[in-house]
Amino acid sequence: MAELKRFLIRRLVTFIPTLIGVTLLVFIIANLIPADPARAWAGGEKASPEVIERIREEYHLNDPWYVQYVFLMKKLFTNDIVSPRTHNKIWDDLIFGTSQGVAGAGTKYGRFFITLQLTLFAFLYIVFIGIPLGILSALKKDSLLDSTVRTLALVGVSTPVFWLGYLLIYIFFVRFRVIELAGFPEPTQRITGIMVIDALLLGENDIAIQIINRLALPAFVLGFIGIGVIARITRNSFLETWNADYIEFGKARGLRKSRLMRHALKNALVPIVTVLGLQFGGLLGGAPITETVFGIPGMGRYMVEAIRNFDYPALIGGVLLFALIYMLANLIVDIAYAFIDPRVRY
Amino acid sequence: MEMCKPILEVRDLYVNFYTYAGIVKAIDGVSFTVCEGETFCLVGETGCGKTVTSRAITRLVPEPGRIEKGEVIYYTPYGKINLLELPEEKLREIRGKEIAYIFQDPAAALDPLYTIGYQIAETMVEHKTVSKWKEAFIKAVEVLRSVLMPDPEKRVKAYPHELSGGMKQRSVIGIGLSNQPRIIIADEPTSYLDVTIQAQIMDLLRKLKKERKLTIILITHNMGLVAEMCDRVAVMYAGNIVELGTVEQVFKNPLHPYTKGLLRAVPNPLTKIEKLEAIPGTVPNLIYPPPGCRFHPRCSYTMDICKREKPRLVEVEPGHHVACWLYSR
User: Fold this and answer.
1) What's the complex ipTM?
2) Which of A37, A121, B106, B322 is a Cys-bridge partner for B172, taking CB atoms 3.0 to 4.6 Å apart?
């Protein structure tokens, strides 16, 4: 356990330079855009020069870029910077929630939690469809099922997310009217931050069902690529362990097939978990498109809006959060290795 | 020679492997009988079909292999059964319970993610030797003690990677013995171990055999081991048994040209030889095996008939069989 603690501290320290690097990169790119953000924030062409000047002062836009960067990071750290677009503090928009929001209705949940929930749903699809498909495919190697799964995986990887999204909207919304595309149900009280769980904890089952109903399709679209990828990885990894000597010895000592499969799957898990960790990052990256297509007020859409309005304080805040989540996901994967495989040492 | 009470009888076994390159006729009509309480050895060079034969006994031939025909008669206390015709579930109940295996590479045979205690307990629970897992873990300590594992109470919680090669093989033997089997099939149990550990493991097998009246089928290419361990020995070449007899008979009076060559190629443990000689030529390709006797292209006594017809295994003196045209009329 002491080893785990040391490992965690060491890894968390490496987060700092990564976060600085990522935000710096985005900041520089945002700064290279040949537009005047102050004018955009003040309202565009017809903005009065005084307002523009005041905004320049407030956001230190007249200072050199490194002063701007340090100012921005400091303010982000203390949640003291207001998004020029939504007029909310950035972390209120993203995490803490804005009960008295100006742009759009306020929400107890930050945008991040809406996206996190979507991502978790997509992740469930990947785990509970992708892994079983992969195992089936491996057990029935070279059968019709195997070829179907492999084809599906290929189709999954090559299908554009927005296209699939619109296709499914056409089928389930336009044709059959079984899904909703507007609004987002919310439980009456925020407890854990994940809406479905909160709704269930509060006993608001109908809200939970509404949320699931709202997210089922977008999460499927978001996870579609991942299902195929994980099915492939599971298939190959499982095939490899299924032919291992310890499975052969397992047969020789008379183990049942279900037990042999358990041995094979646990051994196949290390590459699967690695890819799952990377997928989680990929899902966050895919969220903007899915959220835009399905009208979900999540963090991805928030960032797309931020880019459109030169709202780079909000953009960098979002990037910071994405990077952090991505690194946390990878950290969890590394810890999971040790739980799967006793040979792994920190 | 004492009376042989058969425990296992392999009759006319054929195994083919369906590879992309063609059909490998790996086992080509192998027959032998194993007597209760003896140590029966299968010897031969790598790729001659020793391992496949031993696996075929409980239908464990790996893909893309297929048992084409033959019988494996297992003599239970209640009568005999043909293992090759038994339903899969019934056969599973025999594997690891009545007929147990010890594999070549203990590091690969143990699942790296589970403790050896778990793997021993699992084998017992799956065969209902013990009903509860908790009890099985307690028994696992006993099993480890019986295979002379040092400090078994501690080692039962160890993962395979925490054990030395010898200790791993002791664990594998422990797994094999956990359900008190009647037959142990040991497939080159020492070839992955250091020489010093080899002797310890063989001593252990000998001790266990004596204590439990086990029947052992030992597969090896080590002639020294054969002389030391075995009662009877079958020499295999390219998927055939070419000679079969007691260790005395085969080592002191080898009849088949291959056996003779083999015994000149390695230090003979029973008789002193001056100079080691290699057998000319190489092992045949079993997709296109030589017609007639599979050894004839490498044999210095080849006759016309050897190229045409396959010799049958015939008894030339009590208990000593050979498949060679030199000895059959």
Assistant:
1) 0.91
2) B106
